Amino acid sequence: MSESDHAPHTYILTRTKTEAQRIARSLDRQYDAWQANIKYLLHPAITIYDHARVADIGRYWNCIMDGQMTDCSNIASWIWLRDISRELPSSCQLQGFDISAARFPDRQTLFSNVTLFEHDMFKPFAEDFMGDYDVVHVRLMIVALSSNQWAMAVQDLMTFLRKF
């Protein structure tokens, strides 16, 4: 895949400041509506054991305006990671990955088993993460990736999963 396929300008949502503010205001409400409809954080077929490792990919909503990555007024909420940390045993390790640490919540607001990492999902991940996870959560990334980015993203994220 060429470098241009990974460039921020391929972000497919509307790039105006007004749209960024709308997303910021409605993110938690959208999440609540989603949860009200599907009624679970992890699909019921997924069994989580003590000491499981869960990766949450791309929770930050970056905004691109005039071809530049910009801060979009605290859009990130990390709400799924927060909720799943309440539902899973405290022995599970939960790790969130995002392209920017600019909107990571304060460390003291996270459960002790939650760690956040700054990382662009289109760049190679450190070997430490490969084959180390029982679950890789990427909900709604479809709105942030173009169709030609999906194959590479899925291929890269599959390397996260533990072999059984």
Automatic annotation (TrEMBL):
Database matches in InterPro entries: SAM-dependent_MTases_sf (IPR029063)
Domain of life where this protein originates: Eukaryota
The protein's name in its UniProt record: Methyltransferase domain-containing protein
